[in-house]
């Protein structure tokens, strides 16, 4: 579904990604793991059309490498940014309606809006309880649910999530990642950027390790979670009693 080959991304004169290649299948959750500054967000922003780049980005068989960001979104490739970025002065329902503009550039008709609302409210019942509440007054977990739901309102063919666990309590993270798995089971592939490597590997089929703008390791998540290099760098290898 998503194929990237030899992606090189720049911020002005600084090269941030150095020839990245990866893929996401039509039914997968694929994790992208790395420390702060590794280039994870830059990769998502490059795919979404927000960063100067070269190389191939192909989505559903179409070359989107040079497409503007709004056309990429209308292809069904939607990103939930790090830090949520909901519209604080709009109520929950209004935030969700903003997401429908990703489909055609205009808001959906009332009947279609209701169908989409019913879908996200069934997935996140708490948002229905707070549908008339201003977004700024929601908890961090609720704002993350809202940000994901806003993207779902745009009918994504592939959903890209940037650090969805950031700043959230462990119980909320567990609930949220259960919903991400459910979204995938309902038919939406996910590219998951996540600093919590153990969590990301536990829900994904495959994973890539990104370090300093380079993919250094890739493979099935169940194999990477047992890899000594991954354990030492990202999973907190347990010390022996003699150390």
Task: Give a written overview of the molecule.
Strand 9 and strand 10 form a beta hairpin. This protein starts with a strand and ends in a 9-residue tail after the last helix. Helices cover 38% and strands 26% of the residues. The chain folds into two domains: 24-50 and 63-76 and 157-243, P-loop containing nucleotide triphosphate hydrolases (Rossmann fold, 3-Layer(aba) Sandwich), CATH 3.40.50; 85-155, no CATH class. The protein contains eleven helices and ten strands. The chain has helices at residues 40-48, 69-74, 92-99, 101-104, 110-123, 125-129, 140-152, 170-185, 197-203, 221-224, 228-234; strands at residues 2-11, 14-24, 29-33, 52-59, 62-63, 77-80, 158-162, 190-193, 206-211, 214-220. Helix 3 (92-99) packs parallel to helix 7 (140-152). The strands form two sheets. A six-stranded mixed β-sheet has the order 6-7-8-3-9-10, with helices on both faces. A four-stranded antiparallel β-sheet has the order 2-1-4-5, with helices on one face. The chain has 243 residues and is an alpha/beta fold.
Q: In the CATH scheme, what's the topology name of the largest domain?
A: Rossmann fold
Q: Helix segment count?
A: 11
CATH class call of the largest domain = Alpha Beta
* Count of individual beta strands: 10
Calculate the mean pLDDT score and round it.
90
Give the biggest beta sheet: 6 strands, mixed
Task: Report strand %.
Answer: 25-35%
In CATH terms, what is the architecture of the largest domain?
3-Layer(aba) Sandwich
The helix fraction, in percent, is: 25-40%
Shape: globular
Give the termini distance in whole angstroms: 47 Å
